[in-house]
Amino acid sequence: MRIDTAEIRRVVMPLISPWRTAYGEDAAIHSVLVRLGSDGVEAWGEACPLYAPTYSPESALGVYETCREFLLPRLVGQELAAPADVASRIGIFKGNPFAKAAAESAWWALDSKRRGLPLWRALGGTKPEVLCGQDFGVQDRIDDLLALIAGAVAEGYPRIKLKVKHGWDIEVLQAVRAAFPKTVFHVDCNSGYDLHSDWETLRSFDRFNLAMIEQPLADTDLIEHAELQRRIATPVCLDESIKGPRDFRLALKIQACRVVNVKPGRVGGLHNAVQIHNMARDAGVTAWVGGMLESGVGVGICGALATLPGFTYPADMFPSRRFYRHDLTDPEIEFDGRCHFRLGERPGVGFEPVPERLEAVTVARHSFAA
């Protein structure tokens, strides 16, 4: 198909309450949406790198400018029949996986919409539902966290992820395990620990029967994660360290993890995400789909990816009401009573921005035409 038009928007979506992690606090989510058009059909993609380069080296402003200045001009007016065509047009630029994912996910959305397929079918998904877990960031008090966990357990969530950082880790887990001895938990460290200076803390995580310890060490590291995995019983999950299929291939080679979190934005798009899924499946490594608190567009994209059969651990996706008073899309993201996110048969992503809502949160935009 020939890409006739493109539009890019940078948006700021206020959260109901701040999201706190090892790298700081976000009161609003900064995201980038890309719309591509061909023969009168239009579809949106999204990548959500956050406001500042804290989760990764990319920021929402950087993603917006990279797409506007470099990526989208190389796509508009071009015949792009397959994901490889998109990759060949933008692959000359180093790094920038979130920027590439913003454009590439829009291509997938447009292609599946033109073919009359829901995105999850176009990706190779097997059934239109995704089992999801629940996540909790750093709280003001341990009692506040325990109350949140009790609510999630009552709602039947199959696993709970806890953000940890220095000063909010071992004591918290002691209280959590005492209150919920049988619940499935894992912790997300967001690169907040050092193998050597924090060894006693890292070793202590083994005491709590965790499903995994997610990204404990530096976001650029594979080697010390491999060393850590040899020294602890808890499975190590890599997130920030896996920025594409090559990183995961190397991680498998040195046995740096037993679990991988796959986020389309972090790995450069859906084509790369599917490759990592296939590699994990073939290697017998547990894989699951993460998220970045995207709007309904991005959650729809992540949900479509999570329908692939090799993703076996409950995903990181949430109903719109969990974080936003008003999401961008109609319909908004909702779960059924069994913690499942159900996708339908609408062609494309299935979750479209409402123009008025999108307009209200847009802080920058640019349009292109062939």
The order of strands across the largest sheet is 5-6-7-8-9-10-11
Low-pLDDT parts are none
CATH fold-level label of the largest domain: TIM Barrel
Strand content: 15-25%
Mean of residue pLDDT values: 97
- Name the CATH homologous superfamily of the largest domain: Enolase-like C-terminal domain
CATH architecture verdict of the largest domain: Alpha-Beta Barrel
- The CATH class name of the largest domain reads Alpha Beta
Question: DSSP helix count?
Answer: 13
Whole-number total of structural domains: 2
* Total beta-strand segments: 15
Walkthrough of the structure:
The chain has 370 residues and is α/β, with parallel strands linked by helices. Helix content is 34%, strand content 22%. The chain folds into two domains: 5-116 and 354-369, Enolase-like, domain 1 (2-Layer Sandwich), CATH 3.30.390.10; 121-342, Alpha-Beta Barrel (TIM Barrel). It has a seven-stranded parallel β-sheet. It has a four-stranded antiparallel β-sheet with strand order 3-2-1-15, sandwiched between helices. Helix 1 (60-71) packs across helix 3, helix 5 (142-155) packs across helix 6 (170-179) and helix 9 (245-253) packs parallel to helix 10 (270-283). The two termini are 13 Å apart. The model has no long low-confidence stretch (mean pLDDT 97).
